[in-house]
Protein backbone atom coordinates (compact mmCIF):
# COMPACT_ATOMS: atom_id res chain seq x y z
CA UNK A 1 0.00 0.00 0.00
CA UNK A 2 1.21 3.48 -0.84
CA UNK A 3 2.37 5.79 1.90
CA UNK A 4 -0.32 8.19 3.15
CA UNK A 5 0.69 11.83 3.28
CA UNK A 6 -0.60 14.43 5.73
CA UNK A 7 -1.17 17.99 4.60
CA UNK A 8 1.22 20.34 6.43
CA UNK A 9 -0.34 22.11 9.42
CA UNK A 10 0.19 25.89 9.74
CA UNK A 11 0.10 25.49 13.54
CA UNK A 12 3.41 23.61 13.30
CA UNK A 13 5.19 26.76 12.09
CA UNK A 14 7.05 29.29 14.24
CA UNK A 15 7.82 33.01 14.11
CA UNK A 16 11.34 32.15 12.97
CA UNK A 17 10.10 29.72 10.30
CA UNK A 18 6.59 30.66 9.13
CA UNK A 19 6.93 28.80 5.84
CA UNK A 20 6.95 25.21 4.64
CA UNK A 21 8.35 23.87 1.37
CA UNK A 22 6.26 21.08 -0.17
CA UNK A 23 8.14 19.25 -2.89
CA UNK A 24 6.55 18.24 -6.19
CA UNK A 25 6.16 14.57 -5.26
CA UNK A 26 4.32 15.45 -2.06
CA UNK A 27 2.04 17.96 -3.83
CA UNK A 28 1.11 15.24 -6.32
CA UNK A 29 0.73 12.57 -3.65
CA UNK A 30 -1.61 14.78 -1.62
CA UNK A 31 -3.70 15.59 -4.71
CA UNK A 32 -3.86 11.98 -5.90
CA UNK A 33 -4.67 10.75 -2.40
CA UNK A 34 -7.62 13.20 -2.20
CA UNK A 35 -8.72 12.51 -5.79
CA UNK A 36 -8.15 8.78 -6.38
CA UNK A 37 -10.26 8.66 -9.54
CA UNK A 38 -8.36 11.54 -11.17
CA UNK A 39 -4.61 10.94 -10.69
CA UNK A 40 -2.03 13.33 -12.11
CA UNK A 41 1.68 12.74 -12.72
CA UNK A 42 2.58 16.42 -13.21
CA UNK A 43 1.68 19.53 -11.24
CA UNK A 44 -0.93 20.96 -13.61
CA UNK A 45 -3.11 24.04 -13.15
CA UNK A 46 -5.83 21.74 -11.73
CA UNK A 47 -3.43 20.37 -9.11
CA UNK A 48 -2.15 23.87 -8.26
CA UNK A 49 -5.69 25.23 -7.82
CA UNK A 50 -6.73 22.30 -5.64
CA UNK A 51 -3.56 22.59 -3.52
CA UNK A 52 -3.95 26.34 -3.01
CA UNK A 53 -7.64 26.02 -2.10
CA UNK A 54 -6.90 23.17 0.31
CA UNK A 55 -4.00 25.07 1.93
CA UNK A 56 -6.12 28.15 2.52
CA UNK A 57 -8.98 26.02 3.85
CA UNK A 58 -6.51 24.55 6.37
CA UNK A 59 -5.33 27.99 7.54
CA UNK A 60 -2.28 28.81 5.44
CA UNK A 61 -2.01 32.53 4.58
CA UNK A 62 -0.47 32.14 1.15
CA UNK A 63 0.76 29.59 -1.35
CA UNK A 64 3.40 30.23 -3.99
CA UNK A 65 4.60 27.73 -6.55
CA UNK A 66 8.27 27.72 -7.46
CA UNK A 67 8.65 25.45 -10.45
CA UNK A 68 6.54 22.47 -9.32
CA UNK A 69 7.13 22.79 -5.56
CA UNK A 70 4.90 24.85 -3.28
CA UNK A 71 5.86 27.27 -0.53
CA UNK A 72 3.19 27.60 2.15
CA UNK A 73 3.29 30.64 4.43
CA UNK A 74 1.48 30.92 7.77
CA UNK A 75 0.76 34.01 9.81
CA UNK A 76 2.44 33.36 13.15
CA UNK A 77 2.30 35.66 16.18
CA UNK A 78 4.02 35.59 19.54
CA UNK A 79 1.97 34.93 22.62
Number of strands: 3
Give the N-terminus to C-terminus distance in angstroms: 42 Å
Please give the radius of gyration in angstroms.
13 Å
Q: Structural class of the secondary elements?
A: alpha+beta
- Tell me the fraction of residues in β-strands, as a range: 15-25%
Write a brief caption for the model.
With 79 residues, the protein is α+β, with helices and mostly antiparallel strands. The protein is built from 2 helices and 3 strands; from the N terminus they run E-H-H-E-E. It has one domain (16-73).
Describe this structure in words.
This protein is of the alpha+beta class. It has one domain. 30% of the residues lie in helices and 18% in strands. The radius of gyration is 13 Å and the shape is elongated. 16% of the residues are buried. The model has no long low-confidence stretch (mean pLDDT 94).
Question: SSE layout and pairings?
Answer:
Elements: E1 19-22, H1 24-34, H2 45-57, E2 62-66, E3 69-73
Antiparallel strand pairs: 1-3, 2-3
Helix pairs in contact: 1-2
What attributes characterize this protein structure?
alpha+beta; 3-stranded antiparallel beta sheet; 2 helices; 3 strands; elongated
Amino acid sequence: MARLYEFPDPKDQSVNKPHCLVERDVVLALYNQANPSNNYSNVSETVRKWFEDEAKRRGWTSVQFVDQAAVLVATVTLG
